[in-house]
Write a structure and sequence with these properties.
EC 1.11.1.6; two-stranded antiparallel ribbon; alpha+beta; 13 helices; ten-stranded antiparallel β-sheet; heme binding; disordered N terminus; iron; Catalase; Catalase HpII,  Chain A, domain 1; peroxidase
Amino acid sequence: MGAGGVYDKRMTAGEGEDSLTNRQGHPITDNQNMRTVGRRGPTTLENYDFLEKITHFDRERIPERVVHARGTGAHGYFEAYGKVGDEPIAKYTRAKLFQEAGKRTPVFVRFSTVTHGIHSPETLRDPRGFAVKFYTEDGNWDLVGNNLKVFFIRDAMKFPDLIHAFKPDPVTNIQDQERIFDFISNTPEAMHMITFLFSPWGIPANYRQMQGSGVNTYKWVNKEGEAVLVKYHWQPLSQGIKNLTQKEAQKIQAQNFNHATQDLYEAIERGEYPEWELCVQIMSDDEHPELDFDPLDPTKLWPEEQFPFLPVGKMVLNKNPENYFAEVEQASFGTGVLVDGLDFSDDKLLQGRTFSYSDTQRYRVGANYLQLPINAPKKRVATNQEGGQMLYHVDRTNPHINYEPSTIGGLREVVQEEKDHEPYVAGNVVRQKIDRTNDFKQAGERYRMFEDWERDDLIENLVNALRVCRKEIQDKMIEMLTKCDPDYGRRVREGLEQAGSKDSGKLGTGGPIGTENAGAAVKEAERKGHQADPY
């Protein structure tokens, strides 16, 4: 195999297209037995075929993602409309993939759950990741988001704390709802997300029938270097949107804890290709004092009546991965992966994620993770990056010159024709919250917008989660939920009063969030277990 990664087709005597070899290319003549001294052993140290096989097996797993560990994915394409709403898209962005109606860009999408482990049930209450890699002519663009359009926190400083609270207790290794609400009850900005998460929106029926959102605020930049703020939204087309109640999800989990992965795979195999329309909301790039929230706050929605959803294209997923590990597990995304015409806003959470995501991939997959086929751009690449674990090939024309500038054949900078976007920034360097937090208004609005069955499920799930928490945590949550909406707080308080008198002392601790009597299930397993004699 040369630098271009092309295998020749030579074979030795007796070898065919389906013959087994090891990674050195040696034909394997016995894949059933190690070399031993006599039939019963012991084995000999020079068992090279066995040693290569078992030592690679010992290393089959790479470090699990801290977040978004459980996932699946598919290939497809994005087709641009050439407009944003009814306007030419070039008015707002010069990004090439959007300019021409009908232009198709290859994509790979990874869907995931956020806080749970790599083999966790896909029925658990959790946000869902919705990450799209666009293989554009200008290089890759990663649009990394979730199914829910808001988030728990607005400052990246709190991200490790948030995830630690939702992850299993470091002593018991069990997710503990009291730990979660200990954090949430001290984080008022999370009320909007909690209202979504504990409603049926916290358990999408599958990956095909859920929305997606970039969550954070980005910018679009046109040829003149002028910028606007944008939010991205994926809207399911013919497949629609479906969510599950807690009880419905638990019944499905008893039958199949891979149901969402199976659903996506089988739909694509049947030719029922899921489609989403990409819409954007656009806002001028300033502080917008007329709003009662900061437009850069990722815990808030931009009101659709003021900032309508404008279609810019659609995405179709039409091909399943050929290998899960190579294409889904090693797929690596980053919020900082933008192409010309796209830019960052000052969103604090976005700026923290932009460092963290790509840093995670270098640790998890390796320094040269962008040379893997699933991550590599589908265009020319030429860098002066050198070495690192698992370097696959040198991606420059002159292998001797790995620096710039050079007069003897090194790589050169590309001339930029369009104007840079040059936002003006001034102010003291401080550690402060944004001015317009308004933590409760949109959560209350969302509560009132829910249908009755959604509100009922939301209240039941919050009561089931909070009933295992100590009273001071319950009281803080009720106080904040009441600030969102008096009926919201009242119903949770009354639910806790009724549940407490009925089940006090029988609940245990831990268990997936929103589940009913997770602790009682531990005792039920012991009680219902069938006696057996040792063998």
